[in-house]
Amino acid sequence: MALFDCSCDATSGHARALTYETAHGSFRTPLFMPVGTSATVKGVMPSQLRDLGAQVVLANTYHLSQRPGAELVAAAGGIHSFMAYDGPMLTDSGGFQIFSLADTRKLDDDGVSFRSIYDGAKVRWTPEGNMRIQELIGADIAMQLDQCPPYPATREFVARAVDLSSAWAARCLAAHQRPDQTLFGIVQGGMHLDLRLESVRRLRAIEEESLAAGGRRFGGFGIGGYSVGEEHDVMFETLGEVARALPEDRPRYLMGVGNPTTLVRAVREGVDLFDCVLPTRTARMGTAFSSTGRMNLRNAKYKADFGPLDPACTCPTCQTHSRAYLRHLVKQDEMLGAILLSVHNLHFLIDLMARAREAVLAGAYEEFYAAWMAGPGVKDY
């Protein structure tokens, strides 16, 4: 396969199994991507990520641009060399972080100004400047700079975010030049189906105009602005139609979603990629995903339970340590407790998506979906 080629290996209903080629190897969907915000997946060694079955790892443009700085990452040989991870990587644009800091940023048509959370320095980003930062960091996949509206927000506010994100998508695509890196566009539109579909239409038109002028195309598409405070069922009122409005020949990436059941449901709607800090963040809180639902290891019922965390799981934590030991670590606020639960939670989501892929390849995703929805693991939050 050529660089950034995407092949569809199978479909089962709307669920898809893709293979996508990057400069650091291919990845196969559906898949969950661990989040390494500051060039580290919290509590997990880079070498462990491969052992857990991770295919793509994320890093955060906002945080890396502030510390240690994109130029330093580039001087280290890029993000792969800097963190010693040789698999495919993705950087988000940092837009979500900027727009979550409403009291310190100023937005205009040309870009956004904000105060750094690290030292209070004033920073100015344009779409072109953001592309330069992501090219310096050097992940295989970059994301366009966009405006992610909060929830709830007025229709007028969301429509304005679609306008701005679309305009910035065109500028990002024109500015992005690094040949061993591809760029994903991002769909916005809040919970308004018509605005979502308009966002998709504009991304398609931007790409067509770029190609007609001898420019590049988007390597895939993010679906942003979901999981920002709304109930999960609200997202699913529009997600499927939005996903299936995107081109069939490239990945569809639902940004910032990490509940097991949400992943299973979204794959059924035609989504391919997922990321979220949830597995490591909840691990630091002492909770774990499992085949029997979310587990709180602080619960006294695990005090003398010497069975594995999840008997159905093959991760190193479940193969080695008991619930009683894990509860002890959590209650003592020991670093190892968060590490072991992070390993488990990441493995759980990565393995769940690997089994989803097997179901798609077997033409049996509906059966896989029904079995999950009828099982105890569905109680994941």
How would you describe the overall organization of this protein?
By secondary structure, the chain is α/β, with parallel strands linked by helices. It is 42% helix and 17% strand. It is built from 16 helices and 16 strands. Strands 4-14-13-12-11-10-6-5 form an 8-stranded parallel sheet. A 3-stranded antiparallel sheet has the order 1-2-3. The relative contact order is 0.13.
Task: Give a topology summary.
Layout: E1 6-12, E2 15-22, E3 25-28, E4 31-33, H1 46-51, E5 57-60, H2 61-66, H3 70-75, H4 79-83, E6 89-92, H5 95-99, E7 105-107, E8 112-115, E9 122-125, H6 127-137, E10 141-143, H7 155-175, E11 182-187, H8 193-212, E12 220-223, H9 232-236, H10 239-245, E13 252-254, H11 260-268, E14 273-275, H12 278-284, E15 287-288, E16 295-296, H13 316-320, H14 323-331, H15 335-361, H16 365-374
Helix pairs in contact: 6-7, 7-8, 11-15, 11-16, 12-15, 14-15, 15-16
